[in-house]
Design goal:
Layout: E1 2-4, E2 7-11, E3 13-14, E4 18-20, E5 25-27, E6 30-33, E7 43-46, E8 49-53, H1 69-83, E9 89-98, H2 103-114, E10 119-124, E11 127-140, H3 141-145, E12 156-162, E13 167-173, E14 176-185, H4 189-204, H5 210-219, H6 226-249, E15 258-262, H7 266-272, E16 280-282, H8 288-304
Parallel strand pairs: 2-9, 9-11, 12-15, 15-16
Antiparallel strand pairs: 1-2, 3-4, 4-5, 6-8, 7-8, 7-10, 10-11, 12-13, 13-14
Length: 305
């Protein structure tokens, strides 16, 4: 969270895998209840409904305004950041993002979606929040994650933001993004997860928990039987090959450019991809985009004041 005058600038990265703020990460999966859930936890009460976050991931949708989940996730993210400092009433400016090639076509609708209530009252973990939402800016999500590294991006650079739903690719040449060379592919980590689960089911007749696959992606290993580990690892390697093939499709050449990788897919490349990492920068901070949104927003508000 950044502060500008009396405003609390809160960056929120609305991922399909995780909802990220500058300081928090929570799986985006949400379950909605009409009555209070039995167990406590990441439960948000808004407009008469209880939203529990943190169990699983949200299925991919091409328009994040299609349902109310990402709006509730926004309130959840605001509550997570404010509650870290025991703040329960505030003027909030939302800094958010969209995949690179979606920004032009969806930015305004997404802004309206996030700004649909200027005054919002809700409860999170039994604490009442009274929020005045004074503004919202929407930025390209991958670009925001490397905003702190622009100073070193001389020559030709490729940025690959590997998320749960999509891969976003952008060229940044001599510290400037090349708008005509931005691409989005529906090849997110969720496809890797699905392939791994299906492979285990087909080979062993067993349904495997997402958590096991996530731990293998994150750590390169897991405390499970070797036959299952080998089966899952093989599928992750196949996915990593598809990612590299996608980068080559958009003319990635390790001898001519530096590659910056951000998003949850960093672990896939680090632990499983057959790639020379000597000219690759891995942005391992999963909150980098949310932090970048705040930085861009703060600088913009300062310039306009």
């Amino acid at each position: 969270m950044q502060v500008f005058k009396n405003l609390k600038i809160i960056g929120i990265d609305h991922g399909y895998g995780n909802i990220k703020t500058a300081n928090t990460v929570t799986p985006t999966g949400v379950t909605v209840y009409d009555t209070e859930p039995t167990f406590e936890g990441n439960v948000l009460l808004y407009d008469g409904l209880y939203y529990r976050f943190g169990e699983g991931h949200k299925p991919f949708i091409s328009d994040k305004t299609e349902d109310n989940d990402f709006y509730a996730a926004t309130l959840f993210g605001i509550a997570k950041e404010l509650s870290r400092e025991n703040i329960y009433e505030a003027d909030v400016y939302i800094a958010a993002g969209l995949p690179l090639t979606w920004v032009k076509s969806q930015r305004e609708n997404f802004r309206k979606y996030l700004l649909k209530n200027s005054e919002v009252t809700f409860t999170f973990k039994k604490k009442r929040f009274e929020i005045h939402i004074v503004g919202c800016s929407v930025y390209p999500q991958g670009y925001a994650a490397v905003i702190g590294k622009l100073g070193e991006m001389n020559g030709v650079n490729m940025l690959a933001d590997i998320g749960n739903g999509t891969i976003n690719i952008m060229y940044i040449n001599n510290k400037r993004p090349v708008e005509s060379k931005c691409y989005t592919e529906k090849l997110g980590i969720d496809q890797c997860m699905t392939a791994a689960k299906n492979a285990v089911l087909d080979k062993f007749g067993i349904k495997i928990e997402d958590t096991i696959i996530e731990n293998i992606i994150r750590n390169g290993n897991a405390n499970i039987g070797k036959k299952y580990l080998d089966c899952i690892t093989a599928q992750i390697r196949i996915y990593s090959e598809k990612v590299l093939d996608t980068l080559e499709k958009y003319e990635y050449n390790s001898e001519l450019m530096k590659l910056y990788i951000t998003g949850g897919g960093v672990s896939v490349i680090k632990n499983f991809a057959e790639i020379d990492l000597s000219n690759v920068v891995l942005i391992e901070d999963i909150c980098a985009a949310a932090k970048g949104y705040e930085t861009i927003c703060l600088n913009s508000l300062r310039r306009s004041s």
